[in-house]
Amino acid sequence: MAGPALNRACFLGIITPMRVVGVDWGEARIGLAVSDETGTIASPYKVIPNDERAAAAVVNAASVIGAEEIVVGYPLTLTGEEGPAAERVQGFARELQRRVSVPIKMVDERFTTKAAEEKLRAAGASRRKLKKSADAAAAALILQTYLDVSKRTPANGRAD
Prior knowledge:
By secondary structure, this protein is α/β, with parallel strands linked by helices. It has one domain (16-152): Nucleotidyltransferase, domain 5 (2-Layer Sandwich), CATH 3.30.420.140. The chain is built from 5 helices and 5 strands, in the order αβββαβαβαα. It has helices spanning 3-11, 54-65, 84-99, 112-122, 127-151; strands spanning 20-25, 29-35, 42-49, 69-74, 104-108. The protein has a 5-stranded mixed beta sheet with strand order 3-2-1-4-5, with helices on both faces. Mean pLDDT is 81; it is low at 5-12 and 156-160.
């Protein structure tokens, strides 16, 4: 939905436009995903290096997209506990929050990278393509999970 149809739906209160950025933090790379204007569908966006400019790059992407939220994958252990990776992601999320005024949300990301790789393999992606796009695909899975759950939660102020 775009253009006049989106404007009409917003005016009628059927949907609330909301762009959201999803983040899959990794030691070497960070995958980014974006939602559509309705905050309904997540799509892979791009992969950036995880270096000293990573937080600024995520903030820039969120600004360009006009995001109203940033959703960061939270890597819990298989038993649901926080490990060293979760601590590093928390630090990255704190750095993002210092740089933006939009909310930063954390979402359980267990198995998203593996699921993204399996989907890409099933679609016939080459090893090179797999390595290049798996992080953004994982970010899209993280973001889609968040969008799906938040649509079912009336307290969030979003259309059901």
